[in-house]
Amino acid sequence: xxxxxxxxxxxxxxxxxxxxxxxxxxxxxxxxxxxxxxxxxxxxxxxxxxxxxxxxxxxxxxxxxxxxxxxxxxxxxxxxxxxxxxxxxxxxxxxxxxxxxxxxxxxxxxxxxxxxxxxxxxxxxxxxxxxxxxxxxxxxxxxxxxxxxxxxxxxxxxxxxxxxxxxxxxxxxxxxxxxxxxxxxxxxxxxxxxxxxxxxxxxxxxxxxxxxxxxxxxxxxxxxxxxxxxxxxxxxxxxxxxxxxxxxxxxxxxxxxxxxxxxxxxxxxxxxxxxxxxxxxxxxxxxxxxxxxxxxxxxxxxxxxxxxxxxxxxxxxxxxxxxxxxxxxxxxxxxxxxxxxxxxxxxxxxxxxxxxx
Length: 357
Prior knowledge:
This protein is of the alpha+beta class. It has a single domain (9-341), classed as Deoxyribonuclease I, Chain A (4-Layer Sandwich). Helices cover 26% and strands 24% of the residues. The longest helix has 28 residues, at 201-228. The radius of gyration is 20 Å and the shape is globular. This is poly(A)-specific ribonuclease. It is found in: Cytoplasm; Nucleus.
């Protein structure tokens, strides 16, 4: 009998407090934007779905619920003084990193910087190592040959955060593997928050390419370390986050197809080719070797972001399609619910954030 490791994942974009303003979300009552109100609703929702892996991000785009692992973007103070202690009560552990600008700030300002976090159920997973990916540092290192790499990509302080986990016995719900080497299956869980501005589609694509290249190095180094230790070395990849990119963008084409043309419109013909020479591929295209698939399609999930003036998919969960199979999808809030309750956008008194998967 074959045995399978089964786990659930939730990707949740927490609208952080400093962006939850009436100027931005005038259709939502002030009391429903207050952090003390929203944080309880967010935690209740997280606890309700009880995912094994949770990815959190935080920005001023807000949306609606969707899937099964928990990856989160959240302010530094929120993570350490609220989410981490509360979720530890439920058997989770977690890691967090603020965006790169936190390094330039004093302690009092740093606690309000938003960032990314990953929580995991301690009974099912053990943390092997965590990795921070800073896009501004990578842009600086690859700036040769392009002023735009310095002037457009490098100033953006977005990050990726990755946790190398290994499974425990509890992750094998239908029986313990007879092959003991399978018991501690390594999984690299990554969450990322890509730059938001639609006018900077070139920055989004380059950040995603840099992320993929860094994950390749992390996977290879992790496999080498595990091989030397006599452990299972086939590292699986789970990539979640707010990519701030629509399904027809260069970002999603690159992640889904494993390649993107060097002449893609999203590069805006800004002359990045010279500074991207170290990226895998050729003169004609850039590539990656991860065989990734999205956990959902547009016909199943028409939106992950539902605000007054924008409704669409910008948040994603990608998985290694050769070795992982999605068994179910939570799906979006129904259009009928929005119409029946006259909801024009989120956040809403009954939807404390948005961008959840």
